[in-house]
Amino acid sequence: MNTPLHVPASPAVDTLFLGYPEAARLVARRGVVACLRGMVEAIESAFLRWPEFDKSARTAAHSPDGVIELMPVSDARHYAFKYVNGHPVNTRQGLPTVMAFGALADVRTGAPVFLSELTLTTALRTAATSVLAARRLARPDSRTMALVGNGAQSEFQALAFAALAGIRELRLYDVDAEATRKLVGNLRPWTERLGVVVKACASTRAAVEGADIVTTVTADKAYAKILTAGMVESGMHINAVGGDCPGKTELDAAILSAARVFVEYEPQTRIEGEIQQMPADFPVTELWRVLNGSAPGRQSPREVTVFDSVGFALEDYAALRYMRDLAHEAGMAVALPLVPQLADPKDLYGLLAAAEANERQARPATGPAAVPAERGDATALPAGMAFAAR
Ligand SMILES: NC(=O)c1ccc[n+]([C@@H]2O[C@H](COP(=O)([O-])OP(=O)(O)OC[C@H]3O[C@@H](n4cnc5c(N)ncnc54)[C@H](O)[C@@H]3O)[C@@H](O)[C@H]2O)c1
């Protein structure tokens, strides 16, 4: 039997880990609406501290079918990053379009203090950000929302707008009727609770006609025109969520020309958002300015407003901290042995020496195979550490 590694008492880095089953349990326990509300508050308070953050546009690795992105941001206390992909083809092979995880680190030491799933958390934070924007940009008497694209994000958008933004009628459309059926089914328990009517529509045009708010949350790596200018009515607010990477849009450029457009972080949205279709000097307003009162939101009941959402790292910073606090409260995160605990911080090799000693003890030496790490062969790793080559 292996004797445990000798780990002397020295400062430990407690990296808490939150996997998706625990994240889902936390959200179920707190209530999805309460979590959405909490995230709206957390994201708003982060946006109100905008100048305190070191910000950059995310870096993207493109491939024919998708994109993988890294999204860093930090303030004096925490560094946060998210890894996220966007592969609209994935659902055809049983994988989600969007998968994500991320971490929070302590800026003073660089120690990673929280590592979390962010697939579920991204859906919550995206819906919360949509509501935060809509509260300033949609007409306050908005009651009807068209929801075009009924995939993984859609329930969160529907619930956030119904519970937190006064929407009483949801009109749904997706090219995949099965996705709409799934959404209708998932919303059924909420219709009475939130007093919301849910209607499946036959086309985008039918869903959008007469709507106060239009949320587009489709996935297609293409210059799509889900909404054309002829569908847009005066006073509408468009919450454009699905166009979030170069070569991937949802709105006809003519809609943007005739609207006031709001973005999260302008340098990133110029590359990734609907406004990638527009000249570099096309006027936009960053949301944080509307939130802190230094720029106007909606100015009249008749104007058309667009929230050109692409997802910004600051939202994930706020969401990570929110989920970490929930996990702490519930005692639901587990400590992950991610960073070595060393008696002498300069003696990293000592960790290996101790591991080798343990290995020797476990299997009496019969030659070089007694130190399997040398062999670069998964089958030689200690039991439980083998991983399949893919
Ligand atoms: N802005 C953000 O912060 C943010 C965050 C998360 C996801 N997203 C984006 O939102 C989009 C949706 O993500 P998801 O996880 O729900 O993906 P998903 O693949 O689960 O769902 C997308 C849905 O769009 C439908 N669709 C595709 N083309 C359509 C069309 N022309 N008309 C109507 N429906 C159409 C698909 O049938 C599918 O049901 C993706 O493009 C994703 O990249 C943006």
Automatic annotation (TrEMBL):
InterPro entries: NAD(P)-bd_dom_sf, ODC_Mu_crystall, ODC_N. SUPFAM superfamilies: NAD(P)-binding Rossmann-fold domains. It comes from the Bacteria. PANTHER family: KETIMINE REDUCTASE MU-CRYSTALLIN. This is Ornithine cyclodeaminase. It comes from Verticiella sediminum.
